[in-house]
Predict the structure.
Amino acid sequence: MMGKCLIIGAGGVASVAVHKCCQNSGVFKEIMIASRTKSKCDALKSKLQGTTDTLIHTARVNADNVDEMIALIESFNPDVVLNLALPYQDLTIMDACLATRTHYVDTANYEPPETAKFEYKWQWAYRDKFKNAGITALLGSGFDPGVTGVFCAYAMKHYFDSIEYIDILDCNGGDHGYPFATNFNPEINIREVSANGRYWESGKWIETSPMEIKREYRFDGVGERDMYLLYHEELESLAQNIKGIKRIRFFMTFGQSYLTHLKCLENVGMTSIEPIMYEGREIIPLQFLKAVLPDPASLGERTIGKTNIGCIIQGVKDGKPVNYYVYNICDHRECYKEVGSQAVSYTTGVPAMLGAMMVMTGEWNKAGVYNIEEFDPDPFMRELNKWGLPWIESFNPDLVN
């Protein structure tokens, strides 16, 4: 089945998703790229037009404005809206999808601009509305959240009777040559890293100080790295959706240079999201810092090395313990050669396209609001291998203590 997809956003992840939709023109007959900065959309269109059978349109839209979003959806009439804008805009875009009865897909959960908080409660509150409208909202169709949830659902379906422990490991072994830069939106990245850590154990959340829990792990394709326990949004949905779970944690690798710079910036107040007065006008320090740092989209051509992201899952099958590790290795250089971006954008942009495809073709078809692990993982796992994110399995992994 072919269809039309409206893509909101024109940053690094959107660029990858657009490239992938255009490679997949048997499914994506038409796409529209819409963003506050139309010139970015037009640049993507001119780069890809003539290389694909997908028809590309562009538009300017303020995704904070529900009426503007509704008008755009009504004029283009897409089968699905793929939200690759900022997490602050999830709810307005969901409202517009409800008003127009259009399927919705995103990669990151809603965050209120004024507090650094990952929670699904705002989007889960839309469950009945989407169900009654007969449309699907697929939440978190990136890599983490996204592929990590599909990995867990796949493990549950094929290898376990019950899952007790999940460790999600996110390693970026890439080097961009800057002393300090972030691989995706600096505002979101720094909010994520400087927040308290949290993990789920024995039916409750256990909170830790930022970067308090550190482990070392040897990553296939990358080598030994320091990784730190963070809170990440998929923990919330997986803790509810994976039956029998006793503990679920999320670890991310950071180099010493990144951590030292971040600490200094925190100490002098540059990572604050509280407004301050500067020369007679209000500014938010973190937004000012974002303007000073290298644009993540510019890192692609400088970045070498690989990412390795996956899930170590422990549980029981036929009364016997099973340890299972499923992961993907992605090469920054290869991604840049293919779509002009580094692997962090690539690993999110490919699953974003796949989620939109699953919903648009009806492969995943349930009215309501769902996290990605609530759908059949098999077709998604097949497509990952086909579209550039092949996965590797191990039944004898090193466990994280």
